């Protein structure tokens, strides 16, 4: 089922050694009542997780069964159900991005692997394209798998390849790391890529992009812009985190900042992650904040958030801080539904007004 390659090391959880300070606040655990409330809320409003590195992790296992459970990775169907995960965005990124001559092939191989994995686990997983299909999958007791984000380099500067990837199910494309979305913002070809993504209903992911690219994409896109792995730079100066100005602009445009559960970007504890969620909610608004587990991506995760089963611990902390049920339902589920529905609605309207673009980078960005 999986390629015969050497096992990859499992991701770790901060605080597994005894060298960390024995701080009662750092080591606090939610009480039973808060956890019970968190489970009850997630039964109604499950988690739509914005980023999973599972496809790449599975390539390194000689054998796996996600429905039975798999200890070598962070994500399997039992833990997704224990964590009340209803939808999962499966990344097509690679740990080390291939050169331009391999980017297209690598993305297609990842996409093929995702389809194979989902088809091999019909009792637990279902590949979906739309917000409505996510709900249908949940009603059937399946975890919905959404394709993306994929690296923008997979386009190979061809909008025809964007359309092919969309026809195969791609819903999110990362703009960072391309020649047309650099430090100075989108080039003319980059702007055409965003317009064509709007026409197709593919969401633009600007995590890791330059501030100029983020600003221009937010201003240009007719659909909400997504940050698949971005927290608050005011709290942690990571290059993929967003400053308050960009968070405010994202909020005004009804985009979505999906806060990653990684020690590097958000800190080593559950309260640290909650601080970022509080900050993004305050600056961008409760309708513009989401969750990004980043499990199986090689990241180190905060204590008590080691795998996909641990979401109730985070929700319990937010309940302790006074988040309302409405705010938590937006965070876990409804914001992602809104963004996907908006992209589909905009695409249907755009396809009536605009023909498919065949613009080429050599024509638009020639000096």
TrEMBL record:
Molecular function as annotated in GO: dipeptidase activity
Keyword Hydrolase: yes
Enzyme Commission number: 3.4.13.19
Keywords: Dipeptidase, Hydrolase, Protease
Region described as Disordered: spans on this chain: 1-27
Signal peptide: none
Pfam families tied to this protein: Peptidase_M19
Name this polypeptide is given: Dipeptidase
């Amino acid at each position: 089922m999986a390629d015969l390659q050497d096992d990859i090391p499992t991701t770790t959880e901060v605080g597994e050694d005894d060298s960390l300070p024995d701080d009662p606040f750092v080591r606090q655990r939610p009480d039973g009542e808060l956890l019970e409330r968190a489970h009850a809320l997630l039964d109604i409003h499950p988690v739509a997780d914005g980023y999973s590195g599972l496809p790449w992790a599975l390539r390194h296992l000689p054998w796996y069964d996600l429905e039975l459970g798999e200890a070598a990775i962070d994500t399997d169907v039992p833990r997704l159900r224990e964590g009340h995960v209803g939808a999962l965005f499966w990344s097509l990124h690679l740990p080390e991005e291939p050169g331009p001559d391999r980017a297209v092939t690598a993305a297609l191989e990842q996409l093929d692997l995702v389809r194979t994995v989902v088809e091999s686990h019909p009792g637990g997983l279902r590949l979906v394209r739309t917000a409505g299909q996510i709900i249908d999958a949940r009603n059937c007791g399946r975890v919905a798998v959404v394709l993306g984000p994929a690296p923008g380099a997979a386009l190979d500067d061809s909008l025809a390849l964007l359309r092919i990837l969309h026809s195969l199910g791609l819903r999110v494309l990362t703009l960072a790391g391309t020649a047309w979305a650099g430090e100075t913002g989108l080039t003319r070809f980059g702007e055409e890529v965003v317009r064509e993504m709007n026409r197709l209903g593919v969401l633009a992911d600007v995590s890791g992009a330059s501030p100029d690219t983020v600003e221009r994409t937010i201003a240009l896109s007719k659909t909400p812009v997504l940050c698949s792995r971005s927290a608050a730079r005011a709290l942690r100066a990571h290059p993929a985190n967003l400053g308050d100005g960009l968070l405010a602009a994202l909020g005004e445009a009804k985009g979505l900042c999906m806060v990653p559960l990684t020690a590097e970007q958000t800190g080593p504890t559950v309260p640290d992650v909650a601080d970022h969620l509080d900050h993004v909610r305050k600056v961008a608004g409760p309708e513009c904040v989401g969750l990004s587990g980043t499990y199986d991506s090689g990241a180190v995760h905060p204590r008590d958030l080691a795998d996909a089963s641990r979401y109730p611990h985070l929700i319990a902390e937010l309940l302790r801080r006074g988040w309302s049920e409405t705010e938590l339902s937006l965070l876990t589920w409804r914001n992602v539904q809104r963004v996907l529905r908006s992209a589909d609605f905009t695409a249907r309207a755009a396809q009536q007004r605009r023909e498919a673009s065949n613009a080429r980078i050599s024509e638009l960005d020639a000096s």
